[in-house]
Amino acid sequence: MALIVQKYGGSSVADVEAMKRVARRVADTHDAGHQVVVVVSAMGDTTDDLLDTAAQLTAKAPEREMDILLSAGERISMALLAMAVNELGVQAQAYTGAQAGIRTDSHHGRAQIVGMVPERVARAVKEGQVAIVAGFQGVSEDDDVTTLGRGGSDTTAVALAAALGADVCEIYTDVDGLFSADPRIVPKAHRLRTLTQEETLELAAHGAKILHLRAVEFARRYGVPLHVRSSFSEKNGTWISDSPANPELEGLVPSAALVDPKDLTMEKPLISGIAHDRSQDKITVTNLPNNPGVAARVFSICAQVGANIDMIVQNVPVSDPTLANISFTLPEGDAQRTLEALEAARDEIGFDELRYNPNIGKLSLVGAGMRTNPGVSAKLFAALSEAGINIDLISTSEIRISVVTRLDDLDRAVKAVHSAFGLDATETEAVVYGGTGR
Ligand code: ASP
Ligand code: MG
């Protein structure tokens, strides 16, 4: 017997038919002798629809009320799913985030989990019931409903899996797992059988949309094995674990979810996947005095306005070493505030110009094998130059190389690099069953 947390995204419970299919899967897992906790997202586009409705009433909805509104989407689906599971003769009870003991801070719309006390859930499961928990929500110290940010149900599921000591957290979506690149850009992308948590974190942090970043962080911190798979097929998806060869996994997971031994023994390839990101912008501050403390001043202003800086490059022109240019990238939503704050400090800092470029794209190549293999950057740059694509900024970690290109070169860059690293599948594998990719 294993304790399994299953998270179903909005596309998996979009309508009554989908809901019934999910209920069947939940009941089957329970009937196979496992303890099952389910986390569910709002049906289909419910969250977007609620946001649209609110926007028609006010341009500035109070954050507290917004969270009450948005949390309703998940409450609807948890109640309906519990009914559908009961209908199949398996006892199921629905719990809100607060009832499931998900305690958060009070930052509405982007609350962080500060404590997990899922006693009721644990009790229900011990008594042989299926517990169905509303994703994406918690309760603050002031007893207010909070939400965890868009896509936050993944985080609910992984946090519950960690707190309950689950054997696996299954993330159900409408594609067969994680792919070597976005199949909409690279139709020959292949399904990844396994990924380390570190690789998944790099991919999620650099634009891959399939998992909520905080969910991956949680999984890594608490060592929760994840299985990302489709609720529309029985296929094995992508296993994410830092010890994928852990033999314990095999006996513990149900046969439907049993990891294919091939997946465990396969030698890790050099490169696992490519993430891309269109949502960043670039700012260049020109002709700064090249003195100690100047960069600190620029970035403390960015920090004061809450801008999340990603890549940074400084160059000092050979012709005049007393000056420096600093370029950096940041989320597009942070750009205007940052430009205004820097402009206001122009005389104090003493720069010439602020140049703003919203039309950039970022490609990130990720693979744990990079750590021990030289030559990856040479190959990446060669592939891009053969495709006639210019590289603007570069940044690296131990297992990632990111480059910034022009926005309209990005798709071509992703395709070229995918082929150059031999990642193209021989047949098209990626199937999107539902339509929302969630
Ligand atoms: N329903 C929320 C959203 O659409 C949370 C989630 O689906 O994870 O963002
Ligand atoms: Mg942009």
UniProtKB/TrEMBL annotation:
GO terms for molecular function: aspartate kinase activity; ATP binding. It comes from the Bacteria. Its EC number is 2.7.2.4. Substrate binds at T47, E74. Coiled coil: none annotated. PROSITE patterns: ACT, ASPARTOKINASE. InterPro entries: AceGlu_kinase-like_sf (IPR036393), ACT-like_dom_sf (IPR045865), ACT_Aspartokinase (IPR054352), ACT_dom (IPR002912), AKii-LysC-BS (IPR041740), Asp/Glu/Uridylate_kinase (IPR001048), Asp_kin_monofn (IPR005260), Asp_kinase (IPR001341). GO terms for biological process: diaminopimelate biosynthetic process; homoserine biosynthetic process; lysine biosynthetic process via diaminopimelate. Pathway: Amino-acid biosynthesis; L-lysine biosynthesis via DAP pathway; (S)-tetrahydrodipicolinate from L-aspartate: step 1/4; Amino-acid biosynthesis; L-methionine biosynthesis via de novo pathway; L-homoserine from L-aspartate: step 1/3; Amino-acid biosynthesis; L-threonine biosynthesis; L-threonine from L-aspartate: step 1/5. ATP binds at K7, Y8, G9, G10, T173, D174, R184. Residues 283-359, 365-438 form the ACT domain. Keywords: Amino-acid biosynthesis, ATP-binding, Diaminopimelate biosynthesis, Kinase, Lysine biosynthesis, Nucleotide-binding, Transferase. It holds the Pfam family AA_kinase. GO terms for cellular component: cytosol. It catalyses: L-aspartate + ATP = 4-phospho-L-aspartate + ADP. Belongs to the aspartokinase family. Catalyzes the phosphorylation of the beta-carboxyl group of aspartic acid with ATP to yield 4-phospho-L-aspartate, which is involved in the branched biosynthetic pathway leading to the biosynthesis of amino acids lysine, threonine, isoleucine and methionine. This is Aspartokinase.
